[in-house]
Amino acid sequence: MIRTARRLMSVLVAIALVFPAHFPTAIAEMITTEAALVAANRHNLLTEAETFFLQDRVAAQLSQLGVDRNHVLARVRSMTSHELTALARKMDSMPAGAGAIEIIGIVFLVLLILEIVGVTDIFKKI
Known about the structure:
Elements: H1 2-18, H2 33-53, H3 56-64, H4 69-77, H5 81-93, H6 100-117
């Protein structure tokens, strides 16, 4: 019985030595801080972009243009980190309807200053 076990073990070791490709190998390397930050930043940018495209007003605009929301999300997920960064900058700098109150306030202040200086006569005395 011991002899059979030894013989079986010898055959198994011989097979393992002759055919090492059957055993998968694992490759491990150090993850740098920069690589971890890039991965975290990509995840944050991707989440921000997906949230933007899932908003009701954006989804309505996409459907009005005949674009499928799932197709847009698939394209966003396939973007590189550089492209996601550029998209995030564009989304932050050009949100639809943002700053309307500020623009109205600035126009009012300019008209008021022009009225005080006497260049225009918008606010007539009653």
